[in-house]
Amino acid sequence: MHAQLASLPLDLAQAGLTVGAAAALSGIGLVVCYRATGVLNLAQGAIAMITAYAVRQTVVVWHWPKALAVAVCLLVFAPAIGWTLDAVVFRPLQRRSAGPVATLVACLGVFVLLVGAAFLLWGPTPLADAPSLLPSTPWAVLAVVGVLAVGVAVVGRWTPFGTQVRAVVDNRRLAELAGVDADRVSSVGWAFGAFTAGLTGAVLAPGLRLDPYGLPLLVMETMAVAVIAQLRSLTVAVGSALALGVLQSELTQFHPGGWQQSLLQAVGANLFALALLVAVLVLPLDFTGRGRGDGTDPERRAYHPVLTGRPIASGGAAGSGRNSAVRLGCAVLLLLPFAFRADDLRSALQVPALALVLLSITVVTGYGGQVSLGQAGYAGLGALFTGLLAGGQVAGLPAFPPVVALLCAVVLAAPLGLLVGWPAIRRRGLALALTTFAVGTAINRLVFQQPAATTGVVLDRTGMLGQDRFFYGVELALLAAALLLVRALRRGRLGRALGAMRDHEAGAAAAGVDVPRLKLLAFVLGAALAALGGGLMGLGGQAFDPNAFDPVLGLIWFAAVVVFGADSAVGAVLAAATLVGLDAGTVAGVSTAVVGALALLLGRLPPGGLAGLTRLPGREARARDAAHRAAAEQGAEPVRLTPLGRRLAARVPLPAQAATPPAPTPAAPPMVARREGERLTAHNLTKRFQGVTAVDGVTLAVPPGRITALTGPNGAGKSTLFDCLSGAQRADSGQVLLGGKDLTRLPEHARARLGLARTFQQIAVFPGLTVADNLRVGAEQSAGRTARESAADADRLLDLLGLSDLRDQAAAELPTGTLRLVELGRALAAQPAVLLLDEPGAGLDRRETALLVELLRSLADGGLALLLVEHDRELVDELASGVHVMRTGRTEFHARLEHRGGAGHQGGHPDGAGHPGREAPHGA
Ligand SMILES: Nc1ncnc2c1ncn2[C@@H]1O[C@H](COP(=O)(O)OP(=O)(O)OP(=O)(O)O)[C@@H](O)[C@H]1O
Predict the structure, then answer these.
(1) Which domain holds residue 223?
(2) What pLDDT was estimated at residue 93?
(3) Transmembrane residues, as ranges (predicted)?
(4) Displacement of CA 229 from its chain's centroid (Å)
């Protein structure tokens, strides 16, 4: 007995090592695949599951010898899946330079398709007879882990192939130019990743009951070790996997009793899920390289066409006739169940409920651009809270009527949206997806799967609600209310701000949108909608079923929303009807497989998924476009710039007619003059990045009524200085003043609202919004302006910039020159006192540059203070009344160019002394 006890920890450690080794295999595969392809394979779990099924099929059903089964399943079948995915799905995406969200949706598509395939082929019943391929001791698996880890390290460090992988990871284009076969690198990465996934599945399956959901989720939880390794270090991945495996096993020997016992059990059983949660919340998760705060961070300007259809013009006509027909069809579809037989009506009860959950994804992801894979968790909380309140299971509270309990549950669940909202303030793209998934999974594992939390939860429908027909009516009423709310949200000021945040976070902040608050709001609203839907689901089925809110279902729902049109509320309703309809009318798995297949086809659909099809331009619009194109081809004036040309060309000496004397400058735009121009001053600003002092004690002034230029070589620190002035980055020391106000501690949007507007080196417009809405976002952020005033200001600016004809066009469809004007319009719409322009002339042709020059002059004459980063000497000479030259973080030289002046304002040296003429170099 004593000897038995003494060997218990060792036995447990051995058992833990097997799980740890399986997690290590998964970790190695994830890290290697990510290093070679830049894609975090979220389908790893599904590949593991399908390979485990394949092993069982060959050994148990077809009676193949194990060695042959292993060779075929692990060395041929699994790698072939990876190879095919690369060739058919991911490489085409890479060629199209698809963004991180498109890649993520494709991964989820693969995941969902494989889960659906497993349902169709093997059914939902868990199978307990998966054969074990290796001895029950962990040593064989550990040996495999060791061989793979060492092998990968050796290949990575000492072989030409390893060098090629590093080259492709660093810069795919450059590597290809240097003769590296980047396609081969990514194919090998995918094949290897899929092989390790298959191996993981084969190792884990014998200890589990094999079903289409369980194993994928388990393997997804092992992503914890890849995240802990920051998707870089194999040693950290393997070490943490083994440590977690052993710890998980050792925890089972403690029996403290009481609630501590339950807690310990819950923690022990879900250690990998918890580790994933802690890792995503605590670690920096910088998967995007340098992670600059400004517009050059690809994740901060990530426009995701897979999420965005053609924009809806605010206040405009309610869309095409085709759109109205779809809406009407949708309404009829939702009313049909009233005529159904009792059984069918019972199934249909799920449609409005699921539609509400999917609508929550539409709001958070489709409107706000925040990838949220954890909405199933909030739906489950809605059901659980409703049950607890309706069943009188909350101490001190009476049993509430079901509808009251439901509404209270929504109110309780909404603030829990902050659980993902807070981390979302700093996270984007893949990091955010992982965070939301981890939170959703943790809610499922630590709450829904705990008997203490869910036993005895009743969701009876009492009174009239007990009648399915009446209950369905209530569901429809709630859905209608939610749709109206979401529609108002989409078309109002908040909707435009959300759209701006979705399309270009840095641009939105620069336009004055309070991005962190908006993210919190989106997640809170999303949690409330999901909880409402989840509560209705529970009431519909009159039970709390934790499996109805499985995190894997959450992934399927996310994919379904994106497929049907992430930014379409009607799309969410149709997705719900399709999922429920297919599940009720066909065998399990069809709906999942259909969603997965469509998700993989997304790249071939118009932007905005299936809903995008209804928003394609009608025949008339197509004819108009064709006429415009034909006119442009015949050498007529480019149609898109014609309004601007018509308005300003008469007054502007175009380069082609340089001999003509300059025309008088146009009057300053009236809406800009409303705010008094103010002096922007920087004192001793310093900003350091690890090892680099990008801005080094810079002092300068930007006086009103003048154009001040900032030049200097690449890497001198100009953009960083801009970021420190605008608030996109916080300076380490120094001060920024606007007039008498100290802005130093204010966030970017607050500076923008006080009158500091900026544009970006890489144009920051909101491609999914119309041109008019781009400007309105800028106009409506400052307090004190009514919606009507903002709209009128935006209209006047559109007119001034010659953009009126394009007002309802999506910014995504416009050429660079026009986009620069849209961006400038967005900045001016905020009625700024100071305007910071980062290379406004970049990408403009001569005609557009001439128009820009004229516009900027008129703005300065109107009293605006302008600071211009510009490399173009001619443009600087022509425009600026003062020039600062930056080199290695310092302003080395300040010159005052006498030939240009503003409206009588005194520019000059930052200390305000106003030195005449060109000055000698100053500063270090
Ligand atoms: N987030 C960051 N992390 C680390 N280094 C950074 C970061 N942002 C900028 N730097 C470094 O700071 C220095 C200044 O960069 P910055 O982009 O401000 O220069 P710039 O004058 O705007 O150059 P360019 O004209 O090429 O845009 C460079 O050495 C750059 O590599």
Answers:
(1) 2-282
(2) 82
(3) 12-32, 39-55, 67-89, 101-122, 137-156, 218-243, 263-283, 348-369, 376-397, 403-422, 429-448, 470-489, 520-544, 556-580, 587-605
(4) 22
Q: CA of 154: how far to CAs of 147, 149, 361, 579, 743, in Å?
A: 10, 9, 44, 47, 53
pLDDT in tens, 411-467: 999 999 998 888 888 888 888 899 999 999 999 999 998 888 888 888 888 888 889
Helical (H) or strand (E) element with 182 = helix 182-204
Is the same domain home to 69 and 151? Answer: yes
Distance 713 CA to ligand 1 centre (A): 11
Look at 129 and 169; give whichever has higher pLDDT. 129
Instruction: For residues 708 and 842, state if they share a domain.
Output: yes
Q: What is the pLDDT of residue 901?
A: 44
Ligand 1 within 6 A of CB of 891: no
- Per-residue model confidence (pLDDT) at position 16: 86
Measured in Å, residue 506 CA sits from the centre of ligand 1 at: 16
CATH classification of the domain holding 706: 3.40.50.300
Domain presence at residue 887:
yes
Q: What is the pLDDT at residue 915?
A: 36
Does residue 698 line the site of ligand 1, with CB under 6 A? no
Cα of 719 from ligand 1 centre, angstroms:
7
CA-nearest residue for atom 14, ligand 1, is 717
Which residue in 191, 209, 239, 242 sits closest to 22, CA to CA?
A: 242
Ligand 1 centroid distance, CA of 840 (Å): 18
Residues 6+ apart with CB under 8 A from 682: 698, 699, 700, 701, 721, 724, 725, 734, 735, 736, 737, 910
| Residue 711 belongs to a domain | yes
pLDDT value at residue 6: 46
- In short, whether 725's Cβ falls inside 6 Å of ligand 1 is no
Do 727 and 603 fall into the same domain? no
If one counts the domains in the chain, the total is: 3
**Separation of CA 244 and ligand 1 centre (Å):** 40
The ligand 1 atom nearest the CA atom of 292: 1
Residues 353 and 224 in one domain: no
pLDDT-derived band at 577 (thresholds 50, 70, 90) equals very high
Q: Which residue has the tokens 């029996």?
A: 255
